[in-house]
Amino acid sequence: MEAQAQGLLETEPLQGRDEDTVASADFSSMLSEEEREELKAELVQLEDEITTLRQVLSAKERHLVEIKQKLGMNLMNELKQNFSRSWHDMQTSTAYKKTHETLSHAGQKATAAFSNVGTAISKKFGDM
After folding, report:
1. What is the distance in angstroms between the CA of the first residue and the CA of the last residue of the chain?
2. Can you tell me whether residue 13 is helix, strand or coil?
3. Are 36 and 28 in contact (CB under 8 A)?
C-alpha cells in the first residue's frame, strides 16, 4: 500500500508511457461544473496570451529585419561574414597548421624529386 502511495507523491517528470496514460484519461467526469468553467476561462486566457506573444514576436522579427536593412546587413553579407569567420577559425586551428606544414613539406619534396627526374632526363638527352 505504501508503494502505491509513494507513486502518487513522485516528483519526477512524466515519461512517455505516463504521458500517454494521462493524455488518454478522461478527467472531465471528475470535475465539478465550477471547476470546468474555471478551466475553460484559463484555457481562453492562455490561448489569448499565446496569440499576443506570437504577435509580439512577429513585430520584433520585422523590426530586426528593418534594423538590419538600415545597417546594410543582408543575407549575403551575413553569409560572407560567417564564412570569413569560419575560414579564419579553421586556419588558426592546430589541425590545419599541422596539415599545412605536412603538405608543404611533401610539396617541397615532390618538387625536388621532379627536379631531379627532369635533370636526369635532360642529362640522358644530352648524352645522346
Report:
1. 106
2. coil
3. yes
Confidence check: pLDDT of 4 > 80: no
Cα–Cα distance for residue pair 66/23, rounded to 1 Å: 43
User: What is the domain count for the chain?
Assistant: 2
Residue for cell digits 505516463? 18
Q: Is residue 23, in this structure, part of any structural domain at all?
A: no
Task: Read off φ and ψ for residue 123, nearest 5 degrees.
Answer: -65, -40
Radius of gyration of the chain (CA): 35
> pLDDT band at 125, cuts 50/70/90?
confident
49-89 pLDDT, tens digit per residue, is 999 999 999 999 999 989 988 888 787 888 888 889 998 88
Helix (H) or strand (E) holding 82: helix 75-91
Name the grid cell of 53. Answer: 506573444
pTM tops 0.70: no
Contact 19, 12 (CB under 8 A): no
Range of the domain at 56: 32-73
